[in-house]
Amino acid sequence: VDLATAVDITLVTSEVQLIDSDQKGPLGHGLSALLLGRSSVSRKGIFVVPGLIDADYCGVIKIMVYTLTPPITIPAQSKIAQLVPFRACVPKAHAVERGHGGFGSTGQPQVLLAVDIARGKPEERVTMAHPSGQSLTMSMLIDTGADVTIIP
């Protein structure tokens, strides 16, 4: 299923941009879909970042794009992506209210940290902030030999 842009957009940097498409979810019939770029678009220097549209996603389907040669203008109604529908074959867990957020809006918040760990077992000062305004600062051991981070 071809997916067209809903708006005109000019890519002025090489960073990934979100573009509203002309389609909304849910897709219907319990279908999920892979969002892929059309090969003709890649030849023009516009690259679509592949994505997954869940069967229960509600809202405008967004297309993630970037270019290595800005500026490039993409007119509204340009068919730059396609949806490849499929039926997920995994057991159902439980219903989760998704809303219209998209891009990981249903999971628990994640804390991701990138640090140079060339030196052995380094420590890093980390501040954890809660939306209520409370914060906690502590030293954290970055253990490169473990599959979990230990916060003493």
Order of helices and strands: EEEEHEEEEEEE
- The CATH topology of the largest domain corresponds to Deoxyuridine 5'-Triphosphate Nucleotidohydrolase, Chain A
What value does the Rg take, in angstroms? 20 Å
CATH level 1 class label of the largest domain: Mainly Beta
Uncertain segments: none
* DSSP helix fraction: under 10%
Bin the strand percentage: 35-45%
H/I helix tally: 1
Any idea what the shape is? Answer: extended
GO biological process, one term: proteolysis
Protein name: POK9 protein
Keywords: Aspartyl protease, Hydrolase, Protease
Domain Peptidase A2: 138-152
Keyword list:
single chain; 152 residues; mainly beta; Deoxyuridine 5'-Triphosphate Nucleotidohydrolase, Chain A; 2 domains; four-stranded antiparallel beta sheet; three-stranded antiparallel beta sheet; 1 helix; 11 strands
